[in-house]
Amino acid sequence: MIELFTKKRIINIIIYFILFCFSYFYARLSFYKIESFKEDLELIIGPSVNLSAKWVGKIGVKKNIPILILAGHADSQGLAGSGTSGEAVDKFNDHPMNPEMSDELFWNLNLQRSIVLIGKQRGLNIESYDPEIRNIDNPNDPRTNWSVGKEFAKRGGYVIEIHFDSYGKYGVGSGLIPPYFQLPNKIDESIASKFGRFPVSFRGGLGAPRRKIRILEIGKLEGSLEKNLRNIKTRQKTIQFLSNEIVDAILNGVN
Ligand SMILES: [Zn+2]
After folding, report:
1. What local confidence, expressed as pLDDT, does residue 126 receive?
2. Could you tell me if 9 and 84 lie in one domain?
């Protein structure tokens, strides 16, 4: 009787031990998965633009230059230029992040907030503008990104509109589109050497660069970049990491 009792206890102990081992390694594995977010810019943003661009930003900028960050497509929802809906929504039928706007604008706004916050903490003279009206038909309406950006640049400020590029064959990759009628400066150079370099005449000189507004394509909204943004466990890390990289580049350009 006693012998049977001990045998049962030993079996129980073994079973518990095996269960413990399984749950321990499972926990370690899922912990590792979260931890495996690698702070590697190239790995996170994916391919950068592969077009021939010969410009070099040489013009110096003063340390306290006013900087304005715009979120691409903030005033053009429901119009032709509403921004990419991204690979997840377009190709894999995932839900949009916010049904009232393209996924690109959703992420542009998130990045805009974070870049300005981190930029201020790190001593930049930086601000943002959001028209808040999401449908302004006339690009020359004084409330659009481009009109506000144009005025800001006219007063000597540095204006950059952030974007995510389309997925797959519809997009080109990450990189900076410099201003069209102005020599690029050292901030442009610093951002381009990190994110990639578009030719000055890209698509015939887009609306923004013709108004002295730079365009930064952060990366194509696809693959691991989009997954890292959509995954709630890696979202904040990804937004903060990208914002820090952009602020680093600006700081390098002004110093
Ligand atoms: Zn865009």
Report:
1. 98
2. no
Residue 8 sits in the same domain as residue 48? no
How many angstroms is it from 73 CA to the middle of ligand 1? 6
State which residues have CB under 5 angstroms from ligand 1, the bound ion.
72, 83, 163
- Whether 105 and 147 map to the same domain: the answer is yes
Output the CA 174–ligand 1 centroid distance in Å: 11
pTM: 0.85
The reply to whether 172 and 84 lie within a common domain is: yes
**36 pLDDT above the threshold of 70:** no
Four-CA torsion 29, 92, 50, 163, nearest 10 degrees: -90
Distance CA 101, CA 82 (A): 8
User: CB of 158 within 8 A of CB of 68?
Assistant: yes
| Parent domain of 13 | 1-33
Angle at 109 between CA 103 and CA 110, to 5 degrees: 90
Q: Are residues 26 and 45 in the same domain?
A: no
Each residue of 171-196: pLDDT tens digit?
999 999 999 999 999 999 999 999 99
Distance 91 CA to ligand 1 centre (A): 18
Tally of domains in the chain: 2
Higher pLDDT: 218 or 42? It is: 218
Could you tell me the distance, in angstroms and rounded to a whole number, from the CA of residue 72 to the centre of ligand 1?
Answer: 5
